[in-house]
């Protein structure tokens, strides 16, 4: 299936038509054509900046498909390094200082009467090795989405898990379901029930919800028949995996079934702007100072006499040329809102991006009389992983590291967790392949828990009893985000007796790494190591040798391993060990 899109519980394929719109006029013409078309399903999106587009990015993009079938995907998630696994790195996270500064300005706008509610949003930037299929499978296991969406083009890739209906059109009957009001789920049924009732009866959340219902009533009045509007079950509570949200469905009959008129009247949805809409949107533009893009726009499907659109919240968007996904998250701020509560809501709405898993980060290091070998790189690696994976950073690690491996004092770091001061890094290990390797000393294991607790243990290094390696029949998966970090989840791989290490290939038959070492091959008198993208932990000694120009990265396979003049298993604990199959 070369080109397909997903919306709701259906997957659409067999592309026959396409509309790419760069301004509102082109979008209106496209809507007119799509409404007239028969036997096609048009799936696509509209960006939040439909009326104010200043970029070369389309304001709307729809693809017309012939086929529609039920979408099914395995959404069971169990971690293994031998399978893809979505656990994104946060390149840019939520910034409390910036948020609190904007929050104060929002309160000033509310106090001046310029707005009654401002839906202020922030943006995260995420990186993952996982494919879109794996991301969908992973996140569906954490948040079932009635309005699941997937769309890919030369301009962007969109993966949406929105729970919010924008509008549903059937003939001249139209339904809206604005979502406003959020509270976390409980730990058991009793807590769930209590929190659900709290949300339903909370004055702040009820006020937010009512404001948006009134705003939508006003917007809808331009296009619906007088007297046809009904508000069905106001403050209806829907249950998601990690939170409860309140919706208030509105139903009415249209004067005419005209999608352009509908978008003119109600877009963007009031639940993601605030009230009054136009004045509040101007405030949002000034404070957010960025494009929202697909986030808070519309995503959906148009067919003959029918249409259904979500408000694309809980949505990942990756634009052409970007390696990261954008993820927007926001909340409605009213006069009695509190900064810490609103920021906590953003954290809650972002929490589904990662599974709840218990694991630690660790470093295994060589300690000798003169210090710890490549200490600078070990500390830099664990700190980098901690930041990317959302671990709490203890103050002992939250320092600036130098790029080289020159001597540094560590009394403010190691001393806190071990009671020993004065560790320094060992000098460069430049002649690693000339027969020199670290000898003697002991093993030091530095461990960091998710809540920021450091621990340090020391043990004797076990002697090497074999230089034999074997090739595992199991394949590592380069789309596993945690494979690239040194976590306690790596413990599932064991080494059989009589072997120094076991080497692994990935799902593409590329050579990756050993259980406890990186791989270096002497091929045609060049020292080559598998490229990082093949799937491995970037070892500290490997990094040092790459930076020194002693080894080079390359795509290597099983044939290269068999043809190698020499095979080395390298790590910072034992140096370079010459091994054989």
Automatic annotation (TrEMBL):
Q: Which GO terms describe its biological process?
A: L-tryptophan biosynthetic process
Q: Which domain of life is it from?
A: Bacteria
Cross-referenced Pfam families: Aminotran_4 (PF01063), Chorismate_bind (PF00425)
Known EC number: 2.6.1.85, 4.1.3.38
Q: Tell me the SUPFAM superfamilies matching this sequence.
A: ADC synthase (SSF56322), D-aminoacid aminotransferase-like PLP-dependent enzymes (SSF56752)
Q: Which GO terms describe its molecular function?
A: 4-amino-4-deoxychorismate lyase activity; 4-amino-4-deoxychorismate synthase activity
Domain named Chorismate-utilising enzyme C-terminal: residues: 97-349
Q: What are the alphabetically sorted keywords of the record?
A: Aminotransferase, Lyase, Transferase
The molecule here is called Aminodeoxychorismate synthase, component I / aminodeoxychorismate lyase
Give the originating organism. Campylobacter porcelli
């Amino acid at each position: 299936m070369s080109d397909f899109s997903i919306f709701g519980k259906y997957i659409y394929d067999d592309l026959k038509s396409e509309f790419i719109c760069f301004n509102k006029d082109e979008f209106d013409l496209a809507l007119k054509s799509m409404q007239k078309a028969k036997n096609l399903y048009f799936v696509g999106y509209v960006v939040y900046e439909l009326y104010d587009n200043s970029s070369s990015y389309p304001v709307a993009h729809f693809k017309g498909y012939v086929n529609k079938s039920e979408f099914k995907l395995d959404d069971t998630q169990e971690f293994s390094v031998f399978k893809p696994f979505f656990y994104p790195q946060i390149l840019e996270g939520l910034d409390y200082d910036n948020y609190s500064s904007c929050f104060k300005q929002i309160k000033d706008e509310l106090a001046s009467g310029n707005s009654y509610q401002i839906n202020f949003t922030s943006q995260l930037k995420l990186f993952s090795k996982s494919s879109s299929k794996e991301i969908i499978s992973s996140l569906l296991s954490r948040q079932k989405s009635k309005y699941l969406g997937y769309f890919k083009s030369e301009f962007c890739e969109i993966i949406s898990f929105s729970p919010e209906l924008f509008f549903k059109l059937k003939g001249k009957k139209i339904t809206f379901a604005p979502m406003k009001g959020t509270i976390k789920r409980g730990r058991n049924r009793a807590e769930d029930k209590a929190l659900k009732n709290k949300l339903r009866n909370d004055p702040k959340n009820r006020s937010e919800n009512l404001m948006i219902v009134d705003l939508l009533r006003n917007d809808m009045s331009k296009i619906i028949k007088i007297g046809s509007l009904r508000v069905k079950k106001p403050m209806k509570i829907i249950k998601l995996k990690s939170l409860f949200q309140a919706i208030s469905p509105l139903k009415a009959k249209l004067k005419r079934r005209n999608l352009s008129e509908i978008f003119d009247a109600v877009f963007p949805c009031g639940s993601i702007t605030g009230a009054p809409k136009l004045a509040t949107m101007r405030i949002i533009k000034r404070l957010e100072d960025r494009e929202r893009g697909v986030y808070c726009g519309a995503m959906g499907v148009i067919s003959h006499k029918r249409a259904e659109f979500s408000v694309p919240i809980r949505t990942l968007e990756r634009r052409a040329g970007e390696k990261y996904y954008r993820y927007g998250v926001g909340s409605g701020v009213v006069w009695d809102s509190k900064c810490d509560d609103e920021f906590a809501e953003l954290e809650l709405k972002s929490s589904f991006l990662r599974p709840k898993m218990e694991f630690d980060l660790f470093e295994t290091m060589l300690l000798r009389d003169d210090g710890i070998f490549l200490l600078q790189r070990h500390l830099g690696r664990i700190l980098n992983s901690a930041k990317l994976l959302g671990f709490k950073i203890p103050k002992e690690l939250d320092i600036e590291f130098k790029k080289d491996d020159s001597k540094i004092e560590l009394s403010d770091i190691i001393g806190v967790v071990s009671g020993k001061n004065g560790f320094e890094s060992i000098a460069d290990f430049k002649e690693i392949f000339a027969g020199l390797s670290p000898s003697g000393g002991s093993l030091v294991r530095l461990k960091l828990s998710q809540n920021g607790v450091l621990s340090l243990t020391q043990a004797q290094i076990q002697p090497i009893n074999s230089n034999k390696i074997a090739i595992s029949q199991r394949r590592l998966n380069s789309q596993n985000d945690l494979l690239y970090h040194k976590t306690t989840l790596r413990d599932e791989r064991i080494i059989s007796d009589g072997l120094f290490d076991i080497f692994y290939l990935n799902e593409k038959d590329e050579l990756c790494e050993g259980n406890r070492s990186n791989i270096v091959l002497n091929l045609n008198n060049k020292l080559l190591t598998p490229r990082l993208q093949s799937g491995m932990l970037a070892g500290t000694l490997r990094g040092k040798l790459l930076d020194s120009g002693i080894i080079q990265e390359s795509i290597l396979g099983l044939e290269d391993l068999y043809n190698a003049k020499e095979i080395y298993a390298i790590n910072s604990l034992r140096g370079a060990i010459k091994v054989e199959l």
